[in-house]
Amino acid sequence: MSEINQERLIDRFMELTRIDSPSFRERDMADYLKRELERLAVVIHEDDSAARIGGNSGNLYGVLPAKGGRDRKEAAPLLFLAHMDTVEPACERKATLYDDGKIMSDGTTVLGADDQAAIAVLLEVIQELQEEGAEHPELEFLFSAAEEAYTVGLSAMDLSVFKAKEAFALDLSDKTGGYSIQEPTLLSFTVQVHGVAAHAGFEPERGISALTAAARAITRIPQGRINDHSTFNIGIVEAGTGTNIIPELAVVRGELRSTDHEEALRMYEDAVAVFREEAEKMGATMTAEKTLHLHAYHVDEDDPALKRYKHAAEKLGIETFPVATFGGSDVNVMRRNGIAGLCISGAMHKVHTTEEYTTVQELTEAAQIVRELMTE
After folding, report:
1. What is the rounded (10 degree) CA torsion for 312, 321, 302, 264?
2. CATH superfamily membership of 6-183+297-375
3. Which residue from 66, 85, 118, 347 could staple onto 23, CB 3.0 to 4.6 Å apart?
4. For every residue of the chain, which 3-state class applies, written as one string?
5. pLDDT number for residue 2
6. Going by C-beta distance under 8 Å and a sequence separation of 6 or more, which residues neighbour residue 142?
7. Would you list the domain boundaries of the chain?
């Protein structure tokens, strides 16, 4: 197998870090990718999700036709994923390559290796396949918008455009060879407690404090790490319009995660029941709503994407290892739509912080694994 063009790969990654692409504002990145993919003979399209998700870019998807004999042309297509957006602080990034091979920002922004390391790897491997005339099956590509916002971009996409039944997302923060064996169900929720406003000095007896009812409920609900597979957090409480007015409305927002989908639903219902009970005790009322962002999945040992990944890594002498994550990725969306997605190491560390970094070695190893997946 030919060597990865390491210098060009690193140059590509450094170029990508200079393109601002925070969630919902990926337009410049999308335009860059369109130009590059068209140059590399990938038939590229953009879906119509931008307006529906409140962004300025849709999801990009494309196809590189199979090359080679009949066995390649009749082989099942494979799908490769990366997301275009980065978390804040995301703009005016200044990346530096250090002598030890580490690449970091100047500490005022994220680096954006999550997920632009993946984009650099995919573009480099596609270019090498084209230059060398390497044989491969039909390859499909997806560059999603607003992945960091609970996968809202891909969730708005019609996945019937893809023929592949196996997909690989380079979106795991760990050393080369890692793969995610699980990602959780993630629910966000909003509870509104409705009381009665009254002047706190003149007639407090006439009021019903929505804030007090909400506070009593919050103190009864277990939070933090509930067990080895579930977490619960109330992160925002808003109430009141003045210090001399008994709060008529209290709004409570939070999230919960569990690798057991049914347990996640029970945790939500149990919390709502506590809010309802405390509201009724005071003569208040309440309403609640939830949004299901991610649906838990588990990867079995006989999963086809996992077996393919292990085989590719083994040929390269790279040891694979499972990682149980509590984050989410576009793989959640793929799996709930019947595509065997696998989230694999994407040459990134300390993601979502200004200490984020990647390395020349891991970018190169990621490219080697992707090339092997595309051509084996």
Report:
1. -130
2. Zn peptidases (3.40.630.10)
3. 85
4. CCCCCHHHHHHHHHHHHCCCCECCCCHHHHHHHHHHHHHCCCEEEECCHHHHHCCCCCCEEEEECCECCHHHHHCCCEEEEEECCECCCCCCCCCEECCCCEEECCCCCCCCHHHHHHHHHHHHHHHHHHHHCCCECCEEEEEECCCCCCCHHHHCCCHHHCCCCEEEEEEECCCCCEEEEEECEEEEEEEEEECECCECCCCHHHCECHHHHHHHHHHHCCCEEEECCEEEEEEEEEECCCCCECCCEEEEEEEEEECCHHHHHHHHHHHHHHHHHHHHHHCCEEEEEEEEEECCEECCCCCHHHHHHHHHHHHCCCCCEEEECCCCCHHHHHHHCCCEEEEEECCCECCCCCCCEEEHHHHHHHHHHHHHHHHC
5. 64
6. 59, 60, 61, 79, 80, 81, 82, 154, 162, 167, 330
7. 6-183+297-375, 185-294
- Tell me which residue has tokens 């997605």: 341
HSE-CB of 304 using CA atoms within 13 angstroms: 11
Amino acid letter, residue 326: F
Residue 73 phi/psi, 5° resolution?
A: -70, -25
CA angle 91, 94, 98 (to 5 degrees): 150
Amino acid at 186: L
* Mean pLDDT, each 10-residue run in order, the chain (376 residues): 87 97 97 97 96 97 94 93 96 96 97 96 97 95 96 95 96 95 95 97 96 98 96 97 97 97 97 98 98 94 96 96 91 93 96 97 97 94
- CATH 3.30.70.360 correct for 185-294: yes
Tokens of 27: 């337009």
Structure tokens of 374?
Answer: 């595309």
Full-model pTM: 0.90
Residue the block writes with tokens 């080895």: 228
